């Protein structure tokens, strides 16, 4: 920011963009809810890293002081709250900004079927939601996030890329990156691929790294599914 | 119709600048009007590899900022008539480049040349993104090793999303150029095989450049290898790659382990 920088005569352009954020909805008692978060993080450390998280306090109007403590508790767990959603809240400048007029759920975007409004109560993705079909390879560094429904990929998924789906993930090439199925809380989601070179397989927060996969499943067509709280990787033949 | 070709890789040290010089020289030798642009502002090398370092007066940044005219900054190669260099600035950094400035320079070059070859800096930041921004085609330089292949995969993703063509719903035509390929080491399994690399990158192959001391010799004397040692296998591979870039159908020759039995027995290195 040097003072000598030439002043550009350029109109400032504003663009509205929408992002998908995870909304955390704390429940009373808070200590019990935080223990639940700890257990979740124990299964999936780093799940929230780099993801925008909104604190939904619509159903829990806390005094500003307690909101501050809650934000600090979450920060101590590596969860950065970037906004707080809530009616009739008065927050100081030291807290993340208040967000109003949000759409009620994140997954509303792809729920194009009418008569599904009552789904607000259960955030589990509907299996009838439309699948996302991608017919190009997923390159290293790319991230595909389809919060509702399955993801079908006709090419390969490169090392250093990730695919997240509310439903199942089907890959008709080689999986070399990370796959997160059932990402919004579905135990029934599965991961299928024609050749397993995966860096990580995860279903509903449970995950398996290549080091603790059976060597016999490497380089083979596989499916992965949840069984008794752990991921089973089975060769398809 | 002028074509803008970016030579890129993500990873450093794989041979982007050498390949830019060799491909540019080969295209110019086949009669095309060619300009090579060094986008590595602050770490310029293309002038050295082309032996033009003592003739640099104005550079790309000067032109984008309106300090110099394009014709003042272009350096004509002394050996190949149709080959020009637009050097980078060594004293500035990549922040001095603007998209508008680069766009204007490229638009002006399009009216004067058949091929505009952009030598990208390593990395995926501003410099690399501006180098690929206006590209019609891309040569992704890759070494037969896993880190280079993964970085190339990343760059291909950026070519499909961050270029002007991609944003307009068109595609940038992409090719893989495998450099520093050592047939003997590949046959011993010490390097990634060609098939594995192409499987991972799922992108057409432009050429396989064998590892050769001639390439290093050429860089050190400031002369593209296609000109310095035309009979060298690496030079021939670059010439073939340039002809494929022109749309010719040249069969791909896989470099073979050319050591004889005697060399193998005594473990001597092949030249």
Task: Please provide a written account of the structure.
The complex is a heterodimer of chains A (237) and B (271). Chain A is of the alpha/beta class and 237 residues long. Chain A has 2 helices and 15 strands. A 6-stranded mixed β-sheet of chain A has the order 5-7-9-11-14-15, with no helix packed on it. By secondary structure, chain B is an alpha/beta fold. Chain B is 41% helix and 16% strand. In chain B, a hairpin with a 6-residue loop joins β3 and β4.
Number of DSSP helices of chain A? Answer: 2
Number of strands of chain A: 15
What topology, given as strand order, has the largest sheet of chain B? 3-4-2-5-1-6-7-8
What are the low-pLDDT stretches of chain A, counting only 5+ consecutive residues below 50?
104-127
Query: Which strand order spans the largest sheet of chain A, edge to edge or round the barrel?
Result: 5-7-9-11-14-15
Stretches of chain B where pLDDT is under 50 for at least 5 consecutive residues are none
Helix coverage percent of chain A: 10-25%
Output the structural class of chain A.
alpha/beta
Shape of chain A: globular
List keywords for this structure.
heterodimer; A: 237 residues; alpha/beta; globular; B: 271 residues; eight-stranded mixed β-sheet; 14 helices; 8 strands; 41% helix
Short overview:
Chain A is an alpha/beta fold. Chain A has 2 helices and 15 strands. The radius of gyration of chain A is 21 Å and the shape is globular.
List the topology elements:
The complex is a heterodimer of chains A (237) and B (271).
Chain A: E1 22-24, H1 30-43, E2 53-56, H2 64-76, E3 81-85, E4 98-99, E5 132-134, E6 143-146, E7 151-153, E8 162-165, E9 169-175, E10 178-181, E11 191-196, E12 200-203, E13 206-208, E14 222-227, E15 230-235
Parallel strand pairs in A: 1-2, 2-3, 3-4, 5-7, 6-8, 7-9, 8-10, 9-11, 10-12
Antiparallel strand pairs in A: 11-14, 12-13, 14-15
Chain B: E1 3-8, H1 16-29, E2 34-38, H2 46-49, H3 60-64, H4 70-73, E3 75-76, E4 83-86, H5 99-110, E5 115-119, H6 126-133, E6 137-142, H7 146-159, H8 164-167, E7 173-181, H9 183-187, H10 194-201, E8 205-210, H11 213-221, H12 225-228, H13 233-245, H14 261-266
Parallel strand pairs in B: 1-5, 1-6, 2-4, 2-5, 6-7, 7-8
Antiparallel strand pairs in B: 3-4
């Amino acid at each position: 920011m040097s003072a000598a920088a030439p002043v550009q005569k350029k109109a400032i352009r504003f663009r509205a963009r929408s992002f998908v954020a995870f909304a955390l909805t704390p429940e009373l008692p808070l200590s019990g809810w935080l223990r639940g978060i700890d257990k979740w993080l124990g299964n999936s450390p780093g799940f929230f890293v780099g993801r925008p998280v909104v604190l939904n306090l619509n159903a829990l109007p806390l005094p500003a002081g307690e909101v501050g403590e809650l934000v600090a508790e979450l920060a101590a767990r590596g969860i950065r709250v970037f906004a707080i959603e809530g009616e009739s809240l008065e927050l100081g400048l030291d807290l993340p900004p208040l967000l109003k007029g949000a759409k009620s759920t994140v997954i509303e975007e792809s729920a194009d079927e009418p008569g599904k409004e009552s789904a607000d109560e259960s955030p589990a993705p509907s299996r009838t939601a439309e699948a996302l079909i991608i017919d190009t390879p997923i390159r290293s560094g790319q991230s595909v996030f389809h919060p509702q429904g399955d993801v079908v990929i006709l090419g390969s998924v490169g090392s250093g890329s990730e695919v997240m789906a509310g439903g199942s993930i089907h890959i008709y090439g080689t999986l070399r990156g990370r796959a997160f199925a059932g990402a919004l809380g579905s135990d029934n989601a599965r991961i299928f691929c024609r050749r397993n070179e995966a860096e990580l397989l995860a279903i509903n927060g449970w995950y398996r790294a290549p080091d603790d996969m059976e060597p016999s499943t490497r380089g083979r067509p596989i499916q992965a599914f949840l069984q008794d709280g752990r991921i089973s990787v089975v060769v398809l033949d | 119709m002028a074509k803008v070709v970016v030579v890129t890789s993500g990873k450093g040290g794989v041979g982007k600048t050498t390949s830019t010089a060799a491909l540019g020289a080969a295209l110019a030798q086949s009669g095309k009007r060619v300009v090579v642009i060094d986008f590595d502002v602050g770490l310029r090398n293309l002038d050295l590899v082309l032996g033009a370092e003592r003739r640099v007066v104005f550079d790309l940044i000067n032109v984008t900022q309106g300090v110099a005219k394009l014709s003042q900054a272009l350096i004509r190669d002394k050996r190949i008539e149709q080959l020009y260099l637009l050097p980078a600035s060594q004293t500035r950094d990549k922040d001095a480049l603007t998209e508008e400035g680069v766009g204007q320079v490229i638009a002006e070059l399009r009216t004067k040349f058949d091929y505009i070859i952009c030598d990208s800096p390593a990395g995926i930041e501003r410099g690399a993104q501006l180098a690929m921004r206006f590209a019609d085609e891309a040569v992704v330089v890759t070494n037969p090793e896993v880190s280079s292949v993964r970085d190339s995969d990343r760059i291909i993703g950026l070519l499909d999303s961050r270029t002007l063509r991609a944003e307009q719903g068109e595609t940038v035509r992409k090719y893989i150029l495998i450099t520093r390929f050592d047939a003997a080491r590949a046959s011993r399994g010490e390097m990634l095989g060609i098939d594995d690399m192409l499987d991972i990158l799922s992108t057409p192959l432009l050429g396989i450049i064998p590892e050769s001391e001639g390439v290093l010799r050429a860089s050190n004397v400031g002369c593209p290898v296609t000109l310095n040692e035309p009979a060298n296998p690496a030079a021939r591979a670059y010439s073939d790659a340039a002809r494929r870039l022109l749309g010719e159908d040249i069969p791909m020759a896989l470099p073979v382990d050319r050591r004889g039995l005697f060399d193998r027995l005594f473990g001597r290195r092949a030249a």
